[in-house]
Amino acid sequence: MSKSRVTAEGGMATSYGFTPVDEGEKQQLVNDVFHRVAKRYDVMNDVMSGGLHRAWKDAMVAALNPPRKPGWRFLDVAGGTGDVAFRIVEASSRQASGVVLDINGSMLAVGAERAGKRRLADNLEFVEANAENLPFPDNSFDAYTIAFGIRNVPDIDKALAEASRVLRRGGRFLCLEFSEVQMPILDKVYEAWSFHGIPRLGQAIAGDGEPYRYLVESIRKFPSQPDFAAMIRRAGFARVGWTDYTGGIAALHSGWKI
Ligand SMILES: C[S@@+](CC[C@H](N)C(=O)[O-])C[C@H]1O[C@@H](n2cnc3c(N)ncnc32)[C@H](O)[C@@H]1O
């Protein structure tokens, strides 16, 4: 286990990366980060992960395996610039429809423009809202996805309760998130890359290292795979499990509403 990781689920609401903040302050700071990076977000994602985020998102959507028939609806929370939602629609042979929900209008604006260019606008709605208070009735969706989003949400338990509420019975919950590296040598390399490489690249390419420092620190604060699985179970999901990607740099957690 990396020394800097905080494994207890408490504390995420009152920490901005490694910096303690007042409850309520975290969301504003997170929003500032994504307003600042929105236009460069997709390029920086590729640079920072060496393109790996694409393979992880492909694997997430393969695990979801959306049906190729109309009427199936998904909600992609913290959907940002649309990467996961686009993949889901394509995997359903453009039959699925869904909502890309994000608290940040700058990220959604980039996503909506990309959707238009890909001719996916008819399948997708872009909604600005908070994962902790979803503006949808109970039992509205067949699937709930969230990729690299949940660690930014101050009250994770509240977001999980909302996920369970808006899913239909039999609905699938899938969460892709940076996680705890399980291989000692990879852990060392990843640590060096994260704390030195990524903020410097952010500074060099995007002209601003600070948002990338937050991203790295917030990854270290996020609960380990078993601790996060326990939180998902406590929210009422069944058959909860996870799959590590790239030695645990990322993990896909899965559960079902029954
Ligand atoms: C790292 S980006 C991930 C974007 C996209 N899912 C992806 O994988 O490329 C994190 C996103 O979480 C969003 N976010 C942060 N807090 C949120 C909240 N409370 N509710 C909804 N979205 C939130 C941010 O605005 C940002 O777009």
Topology:
Blueprint: E1 15-16, E2 19-20, H1 25-37, H2 41-49, H3 52-64, E3 73-77, H4 83-91, E4 97-102, H5 105-117, E5 124-128, E6 141-147, H6 156-166, E7 167-178, H7 184-206, H8 210-221, H9 225-234, E8 238-245, E9 250-256
Parallel strand pairs: 3-4, 3-6, 4-5, 6-7
Antiparallel strand pairs: 1-2, 7-9, 8-9
Helix pairs in contact: 3-4, 7-8
The site of S-adenosylmethionine has 21 residues, from helix 1 and helix 4.
Q: Mind describing the biggest β-sheet?
A: 7 strands, mixed
What value does the average pLDDT take? Answer: 91
- Domain count: the total is 1
Q: Gap between N and C termini, in Å?
A: 33 Å
Helix count from the secondary structure assignment:
9
Order of helices and strands: EEHHHEHEHEEHEHHHEE
Uncertain residue ranges = 1-10
Cα-atom radius of gyration: 17 Å
Helix content: 40-55%
* CATH homolog superfamily: Vaccinia Virus protein VP39
Function: Methyltransferase required for the conversion of demethylmenaquinol (DMKH2) to menaquinol (MKH2) and the conversion of 2-polyprenyl-6-methoxy-1,4-benzoquinol (DDMQH2) to 2-polyprenyl-3-methyl-6-methoxy-1,4-benzoquinol (DMQH2).
Protein name: Ubiquinone/menaquinone biosynthesis C-methyltransferase UbiE
EC number: 2.1.1.163, 2.1.1.201
Binding site for S-adenosyl-L-methionine: 81, 102, 130-131
